Amino acid sequence: xxxxxxxxxxxxxxxxxxxxxxxxxxxxxxxxxxxxxxxxxxxxxxxxxxxxxxxxxxxxxxxxxxxxxxxxxxxxxxxxxxxxxxxxxxxxxxxxxxxxxxxxxxxxxxxxxxxxxxx
Length: 119
What we know:
Blueprint: E1 2-3, E2 12-13, E3 18-19, E4 28-29, E5 38-42, E6 50-57, E7 72-75, E8 83-86, E9 89-92, E10 97-98, E11 107-108
Antiparallel strand pairs: 1-2, 3-4, 5-6, 6-7, 8-9, 10-11
């Protein structure tokens, strides 16, 4: 994060609230951060079928403006039929078991039937 003015031989650091694109002859003020500068990070799914969503700043060029949004609880994404939840992952049910899209647990197939994998 430096600039080089005129015929300078060395680069000069920008001040803390400034930045300079590559090849710049001067620094400029960092733009204020907006909500779009934050990305969500999801925690593991809990037994409540909820997970914590926290946010982190993904733009090191902005300064001030919108502050980091607070953490919040959000729904876990349901696993598709034939799978079960293992932490944040959906895994295939073991042979001889199946699950519906409404359930995240595998149950034994009735006697004389088998589960057919497919999407």
